[in-house]
Amino acid sequence: MPSIDETIQLIRIGERPGNVTSGSSTCSSDLAAGPWELDEAKPGYGPGASMADVLPAGSPVQGVLPQEYRGLSREELDLRIRAAKHALGEKLLILGHYYQRDEVIRYADFVGDSFQLAQASRTRPKAEAMVFCGVHFMAETADMLSRPDQAVILPNLAAGCSMADMADVDTVTDCWEDLHALFGEAPDASGRVPVIPVTYMNSSAALKAFCGKHGGIVCTSSNASAVLDWAFERGQRVLFFPDQHLGRNTGKAMGIPLEQMVVWNPNEPLGGSSEETLKNARILLWHGYCSVHKRFTVEQVQLARMRHPGVRVIVHPESPMEVVDAADEAGSTDFIRKKVEAAEPGSIFAIGTEINMVQRLADQHPEHTIFCLDSVICPCSSMYRIHPSYLLWVLEALERGEVLNRIVVPEEIAIPARVALERMLSVKPR
Ligand code: SF4
Q1: Hey, which end of the chain has fewer CB within 10 Å, N or C?
Q2: Which among 249, 290, 289, 231 is positioned nearest to 265, based on CA atoms?
Q3: Confidence check: pLDDT of 106 > 70
């Protein structure tokens, strides 16, 4: 099957291959352009699911990609990337996130979710440079977990994450002060403090550090319920950021009533709730979301069931609660991958996660029918900013001994952030 990038180009010229994982339209015609056309001309997240999200002021900006790297043929890119990889040998480690385009993933030494990739450096002690084909917060985590002499490189600095950007440390600190003013700081009779901060892996290093300093912890979509158990052993309630959907879906699966899970909107006084409501809350959900997973709807689930009797619908828990409720199962990228691998041949899956991952699953498992719940091709905008041209640019610089686009987390942030990450690693999976 053609890759998602190839399908986007076919749609651009008015052709449409049969037997594809998704529909015959894209959410933006800009997806067919090279990302270098956006780096300066169109500040923002770029085309794809996050294109309507607001890029915070001060976000990292990608400089001009040298002309010689723009618009190279697929063959030339392939030849030069492979030559640079070969020349750099064991000094180089290329990491690729599940949501990355196939045209980049084919060069990755490891493919995985954000935390699996951040830990991969430990398996290659000889690697001096790790080129992280993912987004900014992932590269930060890799930098914090790798040796100081290992350089983590993000091929395009514009590859942020709109969900991670929805919570920044200043706004979360304001919220924290409001909550302390309301609840005080004294523990209850069983020693539990009023609030424990929990941040999703998809957040800045500064927010992980905030959790480390304030008795809090990091979670992933695989361990969120075990982490919430940990937090409730130590606190009366949890402040969960930045993804409200993961927080709500996890809390609901743990039996917490919806009225005790309250959205905190940082733009409103007391987050938009009364003191009474906040005092009764068990989870305060930051008003953040992933624009990729927000696209999935109950109607899409119903349509998949109508068109494909016997279909199994699996969605990521960053999807809205109604969609998770309507699906057969919900789980992390790794959970989805394992479910597909374990299924009987001939199974039919409608999957609610990023389209590049769904397409790859479909390619790897021709024994099943696999398609994306969303019929519009709308990849993650941030992952889309990494193109093979940027990969080649940073690799050829490394060959010359130049490190471009290095991501470095200052030690004053990395030390408390590692505390929150270590707490997460100490939590036994459920
Ligand atoms: S899929 Fe969502 S959470 Fe993941 S990088 Fe893209 S915008 Fe961020």
Answers
A1: C
A2: 289
A3: yes
Quote the CA–CA distance of 125 and 148 in Å, as a whole number.
12
What phi-psi label fits residue 255: left (phi over 0), alpha (psi between -120 and 50 degrees) or beta? left
Residues 280 and 172 in one domain: yes
- DSSP H/E element including 200: strand 193-200
pLDDT of 42 above 80: no
| Average pLDDT of the residues in 312-322 | 98
For residue 361, the CA-to-ligand 1 centroid distance in Å is 18
Q: Kindly give the distance from the C-alpha atom of residue 127 to the centroid of ligand 1, in angstroms, as a whole number.
A: 27
Task: Locate the ligand 1 atom nearest the alpha carbon of residue 45 and give its number.
Answer: 7
Interior/surface letters 181-191, b for 16+ CB within 10 angstroms, e for the rest: eebeeeeeeee
Q: What is the pTM of this model?
A: 0.96
CA 162 to centroid of ligand 1, rounded, Å: 7
Residue 160 carries which DSSP code?
-
**pLDDT for position 18:** 55
Q: Are residues 254 and 354 in the same domain?
A: no
Q: From ligand 1's centre to the CA of 99, what distance in Å?
A: 9
**Ligand 1 atom showing the smallest separation from residue 380 Cα:** 6
**Model confidence pLDDT, tens digit, residues 135-169:** 999 999 999 999 999 999 999 999 999 999 999 99
283 and 263 within one domain: yes
Residue 174 resides in a domain: yes
Ligand 1 in contact with 380 (CB < 6 A)? yes
**Confidence at residue 121, expressed as pLDDT on a 0 to 100 scale:** 75
Which residue's alpha carbon is nearest to atom 6 within ligand 1?
380
